[in-house]
Specification:
The protein is of the alpha+beta class. Helices cover about 30% and strands about 20% of the residues. The protein has a five-stranded antiparallel β-sheet. The structure holds adenosine monophosphate and zinc ion.
Length: about 140
Amino acid sequence: MIKDDCIFCKIAKGDIPSATIYETSDFRVILDVAPANKGHVLIITKEHFDNIFQMDAETAGKLFSLATVVARAIKAETGCEGLNILQNNGEVAGQTVHHFHLHLIPRFKNDGVNMSWTPKETVATEQEALAKAIKSHI
Ligand code: AMP
Ligand code: ZN
């Protein structure tokens, strides 16, 4: 499915130009236009999924397989020491473009990129109950 008013559908189809690195029948791999670091890449699905909650397992499998190859290419070119994979789902999670995309962000020492949070406290018994409760939906 393609969504008419969706910018990433247009980029994925090639109707809007992008700095494309690679393309398969399922994905377009591009440079982010406003990167966290030089070499910040997005893997965009060609089919429109709003987010991970809509994505099928087969596409997700192919996506991560491609991500391994792209991550190594970014490392080879940028010389990054590390790399974050980020994928936002829903406005509350920071998603601004509501068409599934995976961020690959190369990381360098003291690069000033911040993805930290304050860890919450846990109680072992509550953790066990929560693990079981989530499992019940799988
Ligand atoms: P998110 O906040 O996870 O939805 O990320 C959206 C990302 O898309 C941001 O990092 C933007 O910089 C990037 N972005 C938005 N428009 C374009 C575009 N036309 N070409 C490349 N990247 C884009
Ligand atoms: Zn779309």
